Structure of Dehydrogenase:
Amino acid sequence: MAGKKRAKKESMEFRNTQLADALQTQDMAAVAFALRHGPTVVPLMRPGQRDNPLDVGEVWTYRDPNTGQVALLLFSDAKHKPETLPPGVALQSPEWLKSFLSTYEEQITTVFFDIAGPHPLQAAPADLIAALEV
């Protein structure tokens, strides 16, 4: 019985309801507010080491084999992450997102939120950085 409660609790932790609601309405101001005030679910190629709080893991990005362009996929809820992506996820803060986008702004061409639905949204890294700075 305890295992079921723990699994349910963990799935509840890996989401940002405010971001999901903003994506549903496609309201960019609400998306920006949700990003500034809540976490974002980030897919990981390699999860961080539990014993090292500074190790956040290796973020998974998609590189188009034809163009070489890189996309960052972010999610409002871990349940929206397609099964074809690596299984690991992290819940990252607005500060982390801003730092990551600022560091890799030149390499990342686009950012997709909930790419497989239910309410996908695409944005430029520069626009998200600006939204996080307000």
